[in-house]
Amino acid sequence: MELYIENLHKKYDDKTILDIPRLKIQEGKITGITGLNGSGKSTLLNIIGGIDKEFEGSIRYNGKLLNKEIATNMTYVFQKPYLFRRKVYDNIAYPLKLRKVNKDRIEKAVQEILERLEITDLVNKKGHKLSGGESQKVALARALIFEPKLLLLDEPTSNIDPESIKVLEREIVRFNKETNGTVLIVTHNLNQAKRICDDIIYLSFGRVGN
Amino acid sequence: MDYIFQGFIEALKLLISFDPEVFKIIILSLFVSTTATILASLIFIPIGIYLGLKKFRGKRIISRIIYTSMSVPSVIVGLVVAILLSRRGPLGHLDIMYTPKAMIIAQTLLVIPLILGLTYNLAKNRGTIIEKVAFTLGGNSIDSIILIIRELKVDILVNVATSFSRAISEVGAVMIVGGNIKGHTRVITTTISMMNSMGDYPMAIALGIILLIISFGINSFIYSYSQED
Questions:
Q1: CA-nearest residue of chain B to A85?
Q2: In CATH, what is the architecture of B2-228?
Q3: Sequence ranges of the domains in chain B
Q4: Contact between A84 and B151 using a beta-carbon 8 Å cutoff
């Protein structure tokens, strides 16, 4: 999914949070959004993800404004993911159940994604009782399982161990290569952005910098 | 001190012998408070969730009204219902004053702010993130509501139990609109109050024990349920 942002302006209590005259996010690429704290990275992601609707300007997804069809083809992994108070299996299967996928296909898809993210041992654990790294892996699995056309990730590897970071990065890249899904990843870590991103956007005080 | 000890002995005798009067009082108390809690819950849990999630102008004022009304004294609720249902009142033609129906109405009005306020607060604090997750995974408004209720079911149950406890333990409203008529509108709290003023402690203690058992039972159930979750 290609994104085209035009005249995006976001204010909070007279303070400009975002001011982006024009920005294009290319389809099928991994784009990193980096910048200092308070530079507007997460706000931009919230606006693109349709969570924050109070802004001026327009965002076009493959030339269209956000609608139900676009919303069901994208997903968002939060910095502190919320996992349901149910088993990991049910957490990961949830997007497929919403899409009325049959039970056998759900079981197969969940098994596959659990293996890829190396979390098969967590399948029967309760989602809300997992550690930070485990939660991030489950949240990513839940996002990837329905192969969205746009994947939005807000600091998906903050505060987790290096081994888990490796797994998450590997699976983000694999998803991008195998499905041609567009990935937008907010990260503080410039090295990580260089490692996995095709393009990097640097935000400074709400504006796109170099 | 002897009369207290004697009171306990007599109370246990009343309970063990399944005294019909005691059990009639207990059953009416449970019926009135359970009905009131169910009625208030069915209507005001969805409203509380909706108000907690929805952004609208005047939300702050609405929150203040809800929170303030949570602490309305039960006698005030009883008085309002009595004024409405009394023969000269606007709903006097219904002829339900001093009946269990009037008591149910009074207790429903008493627990509505509690159910609404607690659910509203829950939805505002935790429901918002659940709604976002449902949306980002492709869910619509109905999916969000179902998910929120599923995720918050234990907390909602605790709120319902809290409201039931408020209903079954209040004395002011049911005393005013029920009139504490023997065999007709007499419930645990009004009986305890009356027996205390008459100096008849065994019955008061027996019903006090029952009230504690009910309260303990509900809280134990909620606790074990939340531990399983």
A1: B151
A2: Orthogonal Bundle (1.10)
A3: 2-228
A4: yes
Choose, out of A69, A82, A147, A152, the residue to mutate when testing the contact with B (most B CBs < 10 Å). Answer: A82
Distance, in Å, from the CA atom of B126 to the CA atom of B144, rounded to the nearest integer, reads 12
* Prediction ipTM score: 0.88
Q: Are B151 and A86 in contact (CB under 8 A)?
A: no
- Residue A210 pLDDT > 70, yes or no? no
**Domain of A101?**
3-209
Q: Confidence band (pLDDT; 50, 70, 90) for B179? A: very high
Please tell me which of the candidates B130, B139, B229 has its beta carbon nearest to residue A82. B130
Mean pLDDT score of chain A: 93
- In this prediction, residue B170 carries a pLDDT of 93
In the prediction, which pLDDT does B229 show? 66
Strand A199-204 versus strand A30-35 pairing type: parallel
In angstroms, rounded to a whole number, what is the distance separating the alpha carbons of residues B8 and B17? Answer: 14
- The token duo for A55 is 């802004």
CA distance A204 to chain B (A): 27
CB contact under 8 A, B138 and A76: no
| Tally of domains within chain A | 1
Query: CA nearest A125 in B: which residue?
Result: B229
Question: What CATH number is associated with residue A77?
Answer: 3.40.50.300
Q: Identify from B136, B143, B147 which residue to disrupt to test chain A contact, counting A C-beta atoms within 10 A and taking the largest count.
A: B136
Cβ <8 Å between A75 and B150? no
pLDDT digits over A41-95, tens only? Answer: 999 999 999 999 999 999 999 989 999 899 999 999 999 999 999 999 999 999 9
Q: How far apart are the first and last CA of chain B?
A: 46
Q: CB pairs below 8 Å between A and B: how many?
A: 40
Amino acid identity of residue B219, one-letter, is N
pLDDT of res. A106: 96
Closest by Cα among B102, B115, B138, B99 to B41: B115
pLDDT digit string, tens, across residues B25-65: 999 999 999 999 999 999 999 999 999 988 888 889 999 99
Q: 């035009």: which residue's tokens?
A: A6
What percentage of chain B reaches a pLDDT higher than 70?
A: 99
